[in-house]
């Protein structure tokens, strides 16, 4: 009889110990704490946001552990609905919301970088609040302007000169409403169209392309 009694007591002790072990494992930092997401951009252009993400993560984990160890409240899956528990869960929710905000910013940055954007691109994208399509269009236009400006001849164009730059300049004049051929050959009709454009822009009307006239054409 005593053996049976000892056996039952041993079973109860083991069950209690196992229950305590499971509870310990459940709230052990290694198992319970939120982990750093692998989908965030740790090289985000604004490192303060990265710091704020880690800080918010640490704050949420510390609060969760503190509520459990000090008050016995599981803010993740509360078992009670008393006032203290409700307030603790609400506070934990605020910390998670803050964490998720920074996480979303950093995840978006990583996604954009996977599409080929740089930190400077992302900074512009966020400040302007445009769509990817609009951003790509704007970037392509800016790249085109830079390329055309870099092609500006150092010497005045001569009659009959043929080049890619003349071709692109003629295209710009056509966009401005001038009826000229787009053949890449610098002729008198191109010079006259350029002169007319300069007059309309209140620029010196000499019919010769320079950086000021070119920038006006590109706008």
UniProtKB/TrEMBL annotation:
Domain of life: Bacteria
One Pfam family named in its UniProt record: PG_binding_1
Domain Peptidoglycan binding-like span(s) in chain numbering: 166-217
Protein name: Peptidoglycan binding-like domain-containing protein
Organism: Lacinutrix venerupis
